[in-house]
Specification:
about 100 residues, Flavocytochrome B2, Chain A, domain 1, four-stranded mixed sheet, two-stranded antiparallel ribbon, 4 helices, 6 strands, about 35% helix
């Protein structure tokens, strides 16, 4: 499931409430702590909560009790996005070498 697809399962309008943690998607619909897909006015279902769970007062085992419904697809960085970084690093190395030679 993509991030956009996950967003549809926010627990509102009779939709199931799904959350993702570490690329695993859990169905929290039956939990009284996730009424209408909202968890304590801090989290809305339909999102990747991996980073938020790191700061949660409970351990990851709590979320792992819920049924899993799939995996979250994390888009990889396109190769075109990597090229500018490689070019920038190459230029920086050339400038450093030029500076060292000219000293």
């Amino acid at each position: 499931m993509t991030v956009a697809e996950l967003a549809k399962y926010d627990g509102r309008n009779n939709q199931p409430a799904y959350v993702a943690v570490n690329e695993v998607i859990y169905d929290v619909s039956e939990s009284p702590m996730w009424q209408d897909g909202n968890h304590l006015d801090q989290h809305q279902a339909g999102q990747d909560l991996t980073e938020d769970l790191k700061r949660a007062p409970h351990v990851r085992k709590v979320i792992e009790r819920f049924p899993t419904v799939g995996r979250l697809e994390i888009p990889s960085e396109p190769a075109a996005a990597k090229k500018p970084m490689i070019i920038t690093i190459g230029i920086a190395i050339l400038l450093l070498l030029f500076w060292l030679v000219m000293r």
